[in-house]
Amino acid sequence: MACLGVFVGYFPVTTVSVSLPVIQQALGASTADLSWVSDAFVLPVAALILTAGVFGDVHGRKKVFQAGLGFCVLGSAVALTAQSIAQVWVGQALLGVGAAALLPMTLALISHAVPNPRERGKYIGLWTTSMMGSLTVGPLIAGVIVEHVAWRWIYLLSIPLSLITMVIASFVLTESRSSVQRALDWPGQITAALAIVALVYGVIEGGTGSFGDIHVIVALAIAVCSGVAFVLVEQRSASPMLDLSLFRSASFTGSALVVMISFLALIGFFFVLSLYLGMVQQLSTLDAGLRLLVITVPPMVLGTAVGRLMRFLSARVLITGGLVITAVGLLVLTNVGISTSFGSLAWRLALVGLGLGLAFPCITATAVSSVPHHQAGMAAAGNNAFRQVGGALGPAILGALLTGKAVDTLPYHLAAAGVSDATRSQVLGAVDADGLGAVATLPLGRSTGPALEALSQSFLDGLQLCLLVSAVVVLFGAAVAAWLLRPASSQRPAALVAAGGTRPLAADQHPVEAAATDRP
Q1: Quick one: average pLDDT of 405-425?
Q2: What residue ranges do the domains of the chain occupy?
Q3: How far is CA 335 from the centre of its chain?
Q4: TM spans, by residue (predicted)?
Q5: Which phi-psi region, left, alpha or beta, contains residue 60 (left: φ > 0; alpha: ψ -120 to 50)?
Q6: For position 324, what pLDDT does the model report?
Q7: Is the pTM of the predicted complex or chain greater than 0.90?
Q8: Under CATH, to which class is 2-185+239-410+456-495 assigned?
Q9: 396 near 207, Cβ under 8 Å?
């Protein structure tokens, strides 16, 4: 049920991502509007995932699991009937609420059923495989749907999938709650949600306009103040939403930072890659989806194997090595062009997928296993929250970089293509008003071909900048992993003290395992 739940929760991510060019054309959306399509899903996940974890601990995990599926049905129905980009945002936001409820519950189910951290790694590997499986089939299904019917029908499959899962869960799952007394932390929830939403709003609006605009400055100031308030509130709360003592574990801190950094680069990369495949290479949604398979299949195939491999290699080695491979894949993608073939693109994308396949299962397993067993659910929810914050910032930051660079270099490429001054002014005026996608709809006569060629070249300039930034960000994540993800033995005293245990280790017992089996 954990694997099925995470499959449902992540299903909209790549299904929608690969359809962004079609949505842009159908609804006349700008690049900033498309950023909000992605972030409308990710923001509720990031803002609500910790609270959903507490709801599950207090009121029952089965109830929250079922409620998450209900929101997935509702969000899909709203987006399925969308007639405007704003309605798509609403549907995506409701889907994000559903995912926020599902994700912590799925990991809590695993932690509850498999208390042994060594054994748990295998099941978290299966969980990761299911997540990547959802990301893998999404583009294919979206491609087939868009080829034959309207793009809105990409949301249809989520409805029966969620309903079937609800029926199965009602019979299979038994209700469970946390053995530790917890209460809802509304001050923490409000300050965390304000900080996340204000930060992403400020980044998106600053990237499409100016970071000197008053509303952008206000948004970023609210983000900083709310972030500080969240820390102060959590330090004083009797039942904190996120126990800040978790960050005393270097492994938990490292995994939280690494997963945020990695998802910032990954989700942002998916965003700009889908636009490249649709706007520059002019591929159909199905052809674009087939290329995304090269990224998502390796993590899906490797998920279970990496879970077993963690018994023999440290998470530090696997995560650092995987992120370095991912960064290399991003760097070699910087020289792709308008007519780059599938074969030439595939091996580069496969490097990205291989690196992610090695790193991702280990990141989640490290976060859950680096804290005492009774805090595993909160650790999983916290790790997922950082994952989604990174995922929300990814399209915002890379979308802003892409648009800014493309708009800056477009006049040069229009002049180099021989476009007249009058046509150049018409094109630049349309871009200022409605975004880069507006160029394809302009009646430019003989200048249409050269103008679209110039647009593609300027888009490639923006893409190269995004890939370079993503690679640097991922390499920074690898450095953080190498520095903070120390061997478990070095954390033995802190883990045992945090668990409330004073008994000596058995001769054959792993120190983190000992901490996990102690009870407060």
Answers
A1: 86
A2: 2-185+239-410+456-495, 186-238
A3: 25
A4: 35-55, 67-86, 92-111, 123-146, 152-174, 186-204, 216-233, 254-277, 289-310, 317-339, 345-368, 465-485
A5: left
A6: 94
A7: no
A8: mainly alpha
A9: yes
